[in-house]
Amino acid sequence: MIDYQSLRFDYKRHADQDAAAPARHPVVVIGAGPVGLTLAIDLALRQVPVVLLDNDNTLSSGSRAICFAKRTLEVFDRLGCGDRMVDKGVSWNVGKVFFHDEQVYRFDLLPEPGHERPAFINLQQYYVEGYLVERAAALPLVDLRWNNKVTGIEQGDDGAVLTVETPEGSYRLQADYVAACDGSRSNTRQLLGLEAKGRVFRDRFLIADITMDAGPPPGRPKAGAPPSGGQRGHEVPSVGGDILSNERRFWFDPSFHPGQSVLLHKQADGMWRVDFQLGWDADPVEERKPENITPRVRALLDSIGFEGVQFRIGWASVYTFACQRMERFRHGRVLFAGDSAHGVSPFGARGANSGVQDADNLAWKLAAVVQGQAPDALLDSYASEREYAADENIRNSTRATDFITPKSEVSRLFRDAVLELTKRHAFARTLVNSGRLSVPSVLRDSPLNTPDADAFSGAMVPGAAAADAPVVHADGSTGWLLRECHVEQFTALVFGQGEAAERSLAALSASDRPLHVVRMDDGARGSELAAQRYDARPGTVYLLRPDQHVCARWRAPSAAQVRSAVDRALGKH
């Protein structure tokens, strides 16, 4: 098995370093983390050559971002590496919330059937980066250059010139467009004299990755084993529940860490991630020492029935966090994505997921502009859409942080009263905030959307990320709706059979726009769940952008309506 944390990638001299004049490339991406790699792979799959520069030659150390959401997994599916991540990661849908030493409620983030992917997987960031690097290496159009640090950037009307430092000296590159995906301490942002603004939270948290001898606690049945009465489905009573199950656990003010909060996730390779709230006055250097981490972990394990179980600390870090963003994500020919553009607290898993979704939004637009299919102005919609999404993430993240870490006695009294009420009253559970977990933003006000002319119900409004659903093909084989969507084109979903569906198909053909058409037949073919999720009847058409967001829908479109909607989504209106 590859040890992704110990990998070192070779620096290789490139012909660009010996060119008499700076070589020109359509797109240069700065930063080979999850966001930059996602963007580079996506561009390559859309037939856009991309240079990817990284100032280091390693993957991330420690688990770091571990919770990857359903929508992000669907993006990774489109890139060709989702299966591998899901197979390696720990899939979960259920979260449990504890107050003191008592479970007050549980929630299911994916309560309905008919989705290919779970609500989340837990997978250490170095695996995600490693799998993306290997995927990028398989694509000839991705030119990944390690130990290439951008030290200067000059913009003109038709592109940017980068100064790149390497172990063998500096060279210069020209780019039509530059994507800055170089993290929260973005060097690109500093070179342009830009900053991110927002709120810094006066608190500290300890992250610890631990591995242990993970047999069931003494005297307790294994997960899923029937209790003495012989009936299955009984949950073993304990302070923390069965640690072996794939669930998110969050404790408010537990006896093993009084006055603070604790978060526990199971990861790949028999590893567990624990977050301990420490308070603002904690000494980061002292708290990272193994002799200070060990008693905290020991108290947690003992309280949930793992007395005496031996564990090892693999990686630890103490962090503070902020909710902030750049005022604008586009600055001429430079576009910012991921942590370089915005940052949130870790509660809700909104950091890496929103960054990958930035890349998902940007890639198809960059490709359309570079290939002459859309005007440069289309890239302005990347900025406006993802600024809106960043504001939504920051709002949710700030609210979660304020609930988890109340900064006044009144706030703490309110929070504790809410937690007490959740044991008996469902309404109180809507007030509990242990981190509103990442979901894709609905871009309702995007200028790329065509407003509805027909009446629809349901969540699949223009601007929403398309919902997955099972499909059955004419030959009887089964598949998934999102797997049917074309990576390089707009996709038209046509529902039903008969004359209405045939008229819609004719309108799509007559629109004279390149479309990937997917037939979503009625219940006789097994697509009734998709029809339900899309409030579809025979002849209904949904137009999806290349990033699988709905941009238009009709009960019976005309060719002119389809043509106008595609042009609008390409920024031509």
Concise structural overview:
This protein is an alpha+beta fold and 573 residues long. It is 28% helix and 26% strand.
Overview of this protein structure:
This protein is α+β, with helices and mostly antiparallel strands and 573 residues long. Strands 1, 2, 8, 9, 10, 11, 17 and 18 form an 8-stranded mixed beta sheet that branches. Strands 6-5-13-14-15-12-16-19 form an 8-stranded mixed beta sheet. Strands 23-22-24-25 form a 4-stranded mixed beta sheet, covered by helices on one side. It has 14 helices and 25 strands. A hairpin with a 4-residue loop joins strand 14 (261-266) and strand 15 (271-277). Helix 1 (34-45) runs parallel beside helix 4 (125-137), helix 2 (70-79) crosses helix 3 (82-88) and helix 8 (351-370) runs antiparallel to helix 9 (378-404). It has helices at residues 34-45, 70-79, 82-88, 125-137, 187-191, 284-287, 290-303, 351-370, 378-404, 409-422, 426-429, 498-510, 528-533, 559-569; strands spanning 23-30, 50-53, 67-69, 90-92, 94-99, 102-108, 120-122, 142-145, 149-156, 159-166, 169-180, 196-212, 248-252, 261-266, 271-277, 311-326, 330-331, 334-336, 342-343, 470-472, 478-480, 490-495, 515-520, 541-544, 550-554. Among the domains are: 4-89 and 121-198 and 324-397, FAD/NAD(P)-binding domain; 470-569, Glutaredoxin (3-Layer(aba) Sandwich).
Compute the number of helices.
Answer: 14
Write the CATH homologous superfamily of the domain at 4-89 and 121-198 and 324-397. FAD/NAD(P)-binding domain
For the record, the CATH architecture of the domain at 4-89 and 121-198 and 324-397 stands as 3-Layer(bba) Sandwich
Kindly state the number of beta strands.
Answer: 25
CATH class of the domain at 4-89 and 121-198 and 324-397: Alpha Beta
**Structural class of the helix and strand makeup?**
alpha+beta
Percentage beta strand: 25-35%
Largest sheet: 8 strands, mixed
Compute the CA-based radius of gyration: 25 Å
Which runs of at least 5 residues are low in confidence (pLDDT < 50)? 216-241
Residues in helices, as a percent range: 25-40%
Mean pLDDT: 90
Q: Provide the CATH topology of the domain at 4-89 and 121-198 and 324-397.
A: FAD/NAD(P)-binding domain
Name the shape in a single word.
Answer: globular
Alpha-carbon distance between the two ends? 52 Å
